[in-house]
Each structure stands twice: as structure tokens, then as C-alpha cells.
Specification:
This protein is mostly helical. It has helices at residues 4-34, 44-49, 53-77, 90-99, 116-147, 149-189.
């Protein structure tokens, strides 16, 4: 069973990396179809800094490259130092993974963790999964803007804000999932 573990990791990594790339391409392509001049684009680079397509594509390429690199780190380089103490709650475990103690959970929300390996691994997992989901969600939203006047009206009347809220919820969910996955591994080792 141990021999199939690396093969499974490789397959998961390749699948997720591929889907991240496809989701980003889908988002960019549908944006280009809907607003080729980027007039009214909600991307921060475009909206606040006046970036054009070249900048957007360079940024997206760098974002995807960094995300895939951190995902690779998560799958193949991350060696968590699980606590030896048995029976920790998920909160205590998350605190330990980030701060090497079981009582600093609240610091997860405002402090850079002591354990940089866990931090980079969590970013690799969370950002890749979030980008994957958000890319398909935004691409589908843009496709609906192209195809449906009804959806266009809903978008203008506030669905846009729901999409942004949903993006935040997705990121929080995957952050929680990261700790759940590692917690399961910790419990199976104890």
C-alpha cells in the first residue's frame, strides 16, 4: 500500500495543477470574449491600476506558476512535525502545526506562523483549490453574461457581490479542509 502512495500524490498533483491552469484560462478567455477592451473589468489590476491584457496575462501566469510551485511543495516537500501528544482537538492541532504549541489558535487570524513549512503548504493547498473553484465560477459567470440578458441584469443588481462573498467562503472552506486533512493524518499516526 505504501508504494502506491507516491503514485497517488503524483496523480493528484497533476490533476489539480492541470485544473488550476484550465480554470485560469477559462476565466481569462471568457473575459476576453465578453470585454476585449477590459472596459468595466473588476480585476483589481485593471480596475485600480489600469492594467492591459499584457499585464493581466503576465500576472495570471505568475500567479499560476507560484500556485503550482506551492502545490508541489505541499504534496512532495511538506513534512509536518505532528505533535506527539494524543487526543488533541482540531483547534489545538492547527495551533500546533502553525505555532508549535496547542494554545495559539486565535493567532491564526492575525499572526504569521512560526512554522513556515506548514504556512507554505497550506497556501499551496488553499490557493490552488480556491483558484480552481473561483476560475470555473467566474468563467461560468462571464459566460452567462455573454449568453443571458437576465443574468446580466442579476449581475448588475448585486449578484456580483454574492460572487465575491462566495469566493471568500470558498477560501475559508479550503483552509479548514487543509487542517482537517492533516488532522486525519495525525490521528491515523497515533
Amino acid at each position: 500500500m505504501k508504494n502506491s502512495e507516491p503514485s497517488g500524490k503524483i496523480k493528484k498533483f497533476i490533476l489539480i495543477a492541470f485544473l488550476v491552469i484550465v480554470s485560469r484560462l477559462y476565466d481569462v478567455f471568457t473575459t476576453y470574449l465578453y470585454i476585449p477592451d477590459l472596459e468595466g473589468e473588476t480585476n483589481i489590476l485593471v480596475k485600480f491600476f489600469g492594467a492591459g491584457w499584457t499585464t493581466v496575462i503576465i500576472f495570471q501566469s505568475l500567479l499560476v506558476g507560484l500556485t503550482v510551485f506551492l502545490l508541489f511543495f505541499y504534496y512532495f516537500k511538506f513534512k509536518p512535525d505532528y505533535p506527539t501528544e494524543k487526543g488533541l482537538s482540531l483547534k489545538q492541532f492547527a495551533s500546533y502545526l502553525y505555532f508549535n504549541n496547542t494554545y495559539s489558535f486565535n493567532k491564526l487570524f492575525y499572526k504569521t506562523p512560526n512554522n513556515k513549512g506548514t504556512f507554505f503548504a497550506s497556501i499551496g493547498y488553499v490557493v490552488s483549490m480556491t483558484l480552481l473553484a473561483v476560475g470555473f465560477m467566474v468563467g461560468t459567470s462571464t459566460t452567462l453574461l455573454i449568453l443571458s440578458d437576465t443574468y446580466k441584469q442579476l449581475y448588475k443588481n448585486g449578484i456580483f457581490y454574492l460572487l465575491f462573498a462566495f469566493m471568500g467562503i470558498i477560501a475559508i472552506w479550503f483552509y479548514y479542509r487543509f487542517f482537517q486533512i492533516e488532522y486525519r493524518k495525525y490521528n491515523s499516526n497515533n
